[in-house]
Every structure is written in structure tokens, then in C-alpha cells.
Amino acid sequence: PAHPEVQAMIRRIEEIVLKTDKTLCTLTPGFEQAKVLFDKGYKMVTLMADGVALAKTAHDQVTRFKSAFPG
After folding, report:
1. pLDDT tens digits, 41-55
2. Model-level pTM?
3. Which of 2, 30, 37, 41 is deepest in the core (most CB within 10 A)?
4. SS3 for 71?
């Protein structure tokens, strides 16, 4: 969710949760984002959730197909 209001709300939730004894967790598309989140204080991050992995694979294949067969 790249929308500025969504990002602002995520930051607010992070600020609130990190001040408590609660666990901050989320889904990520891969290692790079997971590392950033762990560095922020997240305690549980799921790498490569099925839906995220499937969407990325589909996008990559469509992009590859369009490149191979333009027009």
C-alpha cells in the first residue's frame, strides 16, 4: 500500500505498538523488506506469502511475454 495516508497510518501503528509489549508483525514480498522491518522492531515477518509470490511471478511472466511478443 503506497498511498501516503496508508503509509502514515502504518507508521502510527508502528509507533504505538513498539511502545508496548505487543508483537508487531506483517507480510513481506522478500528478504530486503523483511530486513528493514526487523531493523525497525518487528518481531514476526512472513517472507514470500503465497499471494505475494504468485502476484510477483504472474507480473514477471506477463512482462517477459510482452517483451518477447511486442504489439
Report:
1. 999 998 877 887 788
2. 0.64
3. 37
4. coil
